[in-house]
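tl;dr need the bound structure. longer version: we got a ligand (flavin mononucleotide) that a collaborator sent over and nobodys looked at where it sits. i said id run it. heres the input, straight from their email, havent touched it
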Amino acid sequence: MNKSRINSVIFYYSQIVTENTKRVAENIAIGLRRNNNKCKLVRLTKFDQDIELLQSFAFDHYDLIGFGVPVYYFHPPYHIKFELKKLPSLKGRKGFLFCTSGGNPGSTLQQIKMVLKAKDLHIIDGCDKWKGLDVHQMYANQPNSNGGVGWLPSSFGHPTTEELGEARKFGEKLIDKMNSSKRIAEKKFWARDNPSAKMWSWEGIQEWFPKFHLNKQKCTKCGICAKICPWDAIKLTPYPEWIKKCDRCYICELKCPENAIECDFTDQIEYLENLMRSKKKG
Ligand SMILES: Cc1cc2nc3c(=O)[nH]c(=O)nc-3n(C[C@H](O)[C@H](O)[C@H](O)COP(=O)(O)O)c2cc1C
Ligand code: SF4
Ligand code: SF4
């Protein structure tokens, strides 16, 4: 067994409201730091800034490179997928992938894997089973743990202490794999085609989800929405304007201190309620 010190880095994106993927990443890093191995955590935040960072990053200093994302509409968040396409070659490096979801990760890891394989990254492991609290506005009518409404009930309390413990073990196992003298095969368990992911395309989510309506009576032009948007999709003129297609994560709406961004989720909520009713029947 070759027991050299492993130097790893984890890039992750995590929505500022919930930070589920951040917590999982931090726990994987604890596992990866076992026995004096090293692990650096890098949080991806905004599209242009991330691309600059990824393109100038010294990947050749690292033996193992991890990527973690939340699941958005059965996909990786689209801005992350586009960012990863701009990575330089990762030839000679090993990698791993993970995500957190409300319970259906769709084809998220398969899609990241395809993008990173084109960069010649040898992906040795991955995990898409960790869950995280889901605050999508589609669940606006669902009861939440605060006695109010607005979160997916089955995602309450996730990631759990147990799940975070599994994340640490996942990191430790990665070190064992890296130290093994056996050739590490590529992991294939997520290589499946997912019908939900096919249905919720990039164009489709732009069409189906509600447009952003600004209530100028309420808006104070504070700029918070533009500052937190991961796509840089909001321009201040000086009122916010939505200038391009985006992830449809709706954190701009959630975090506006004046509730000045008004999105009408009536159709989406109705769809969800019908889906729940038919699931109960079926
Ligand atoms: C815009 C949006 C879309 C989502 N789509 C899905 C989905 O397709 N499947 C799923 O299981 N969870 C979905 N979720 C839930 C998130 O994947 C889950 O809450 C995740 O843990 C969030 O991670 P984060 O806190 O690191 O951002 C979605 C959440 C948001 C905000
Ligand atoms: S966060 Fe709200 S109040 Fe502030 S600029 Fe954006 S819409 Fe206006
Ligand atoms: S404009 Fe709003 S919904 Fe779109 S990516 Fe930015 S924060 Fe998310």
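gonna send this back to them w/ a short note. The pocket of iron/sulfur cluster (ligand 2) is lined by residues 214, 219-225, 240, 256, 258, 260-261 (CB under 6 Å).
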